[in-house]
Design a protein that fits this description.
globular, alpha+beta, 14 strands, single chain, four-stranded antiparallel beta sheet, Jelly Rolls
Length: 321
């Protein structure tokens, strides 16, 4: 009988080569783990978290003043705007959540190669009703960007690559920070409707902060087809890799299906839930092709090379229509 899926917690305040090898061992089995000792200041994380709760508490009319522009990916997304299952071409009702996204903004000295890339480097939208909002979000975005770069350096060690292998492939990254509010459910969901439908993430890696005491995140165990909970852990971030990292590694590392389920009707956890994922992506023009270090003798790449940006934009626009 196979062992049940385990999502480990890994301290990263150690030798990056040692941590990289642990990442490699874990990601061969499941595309998720949690990290502690990550160095992100509590004050930075908590300021962003708390002002985000204030934003979602605003009247809908105030939130709609920063609704995403047509064709854009940043700003406020009202309830039911997104169906993550659609990113995998599955049919499902809109997800039971609202969200707010920010991106890197317009990069000085960088000229996008096409309109699609330009859409990933638009100015961000900030709520005038909360002047402290931007001042809290920008430092947290920077902390997540820096943590992503550290993790990718460790990934490189785990993949027998130079420590700086990913550096020139992420220096103009169209990464995104998202806050998600899953409101209290005062009515039964539709058939097949979840807080977040089953999906994989699209890019290199995701860094997720969960709300303590509010469960719901589940990952799919490919061996048993069972869904496994990842309970929130104090001081930890959940890390998972996305589709492009799986392609880079020729599926040596797994981009694992995951979802956010509805609370049990009448349970004491039927109240709202907040989370904050940071979606790290490779540069728009980065070529994602199989890493030679992951191929065994005689093994061939499973995938044709693909540009990171068009892949990311295609998946994102499927999810939001």
């Amino acid at each position: 009988m196979s062992q049940p899926l385990a999502v480990p917690t890994i301290s990263i305040d150690r030798d990056p080569k040692v941590v990289g090898r642990e990442f490699d061992e874990t990601l061969r089995e499941v595309g998720f783990f949690q990290i502690v000792d990550h160095g992100v200041p509590d004050a930075v994380a908590d300021a962003c978290w708390n002002v985000t709760r204030d934003f979602f508490d605003l009247p809908l009319a105030a939130k709609l003043k920063v609704e995403r522009e047509e064709g854009g990916l940043y700003g406020y997304f009202p309830m039911l705007t997104e169906s993550l299952a659609a990113s995998l071409d599955a049919m499902a009702p809109g997800d039971l959540k609202e969200s707010f996204n920010m991106g890197p903004g317009v990069l000085a000295g960088h000229t996008p190669v096409d309109e699609t890339e330009a859409s990933l480097f638009r100015d961000n939208r900030w709520p005038a009703a909360l002047p402290e909002f931007r001042a809290a979000w920008e430092p947290y975005f920077a902390a997540m960007k820096n943590l992503s770069a550290r993790l990718l350096g460790m990934f490189a060690h785990g993949l027998d690559l130079p420590a700086d292998f990913f550096a020139d492939k992420i220096d103009r990254s169209p990464s995104a920070l998202r806050a998600i509010n899953y409101p209290e459910q005062d009515a039964p969901p539709l058939d097949g409707q979840l807080r977040a439908g089953a999906h994989t993430d699209y890019g290199t890696l995701t860094i997720l902060r969960q709300e303590l005491g509010r469960a719901g995140l589940q990952v799919r165990d490919e061996k048993s087809d069972a869904w496994v909970d990842i309970p929130p852990t104090a001081g930890a971030f959940v890390i998972n890799i996305g589709d492009l990292m799986a392609r880079w590694t020729n599926d040596r590392w797994t981009s694992t299906l995951h979802r956010v389920v509805n609370p049990d009707a009448g349970s004491d956890v039927s109240t709202r839930r907040q989370s904050m994922p940071f979606f790290h992506n490779a540069n728009y023009s980065a070529l994602i092709e199989c890493l030679p270090s992951v191929l065994a003798a005689g093994e061939r790449p499973k995938y044709e090379p693909v540009l990171a940006g068009p892949h990311l934009a295609g998946k994102s626009h499927k999810a939001v229509g």
